[in-house]
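Dear colleagues,

As part of the handover before I leave the project, I'm documenting each prediction I ran so the next person doesn't have to rerun anything. This entry is a single chain, and its sequence is reproduced below.
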Amino acid sequence: MKTFLTTTLLLLLTLPVFAADPIAKTEITHVDPKAAAALIDEKKVTILDVRTDAEYKDGHLANAINHDFTEDDFKTQIDTLDKEKPYLIHCQSGARSAKSLKAFKALGFKHIYHLDGGISAWKDASLPVTK
């Protein structure tokens, strides 16, 4: 009996562990404005603007959804989104959106594109914004 238990225990310890780990499953791709525009044109992403409401109203990417990263319930807000869809995340300069990536990973989003340089880089590339 002791040998059987020892053998069973050893077998269990050598089996691969398949724990649910959403952080390991999130793919993050950093893109410049030109690549972001191509993703949008090809309808491959949903655009998430993580700036404040005032910044968003001052000008945003067409069809962008606004979820303010500085709000206390930011993580709760984005948790309602479809985690299987790819999202293009941006803020003003890229700092807040880069910080927000941790929340997207923790919640198990599958694919996130990060607009490096934010909407500032977008505007510098002479790409359109809407109000």
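Confidence is low (pLDDT under 50) at residues 4-23. The chain is about 45% helix and 15% strand.

All the best with the project,
I.
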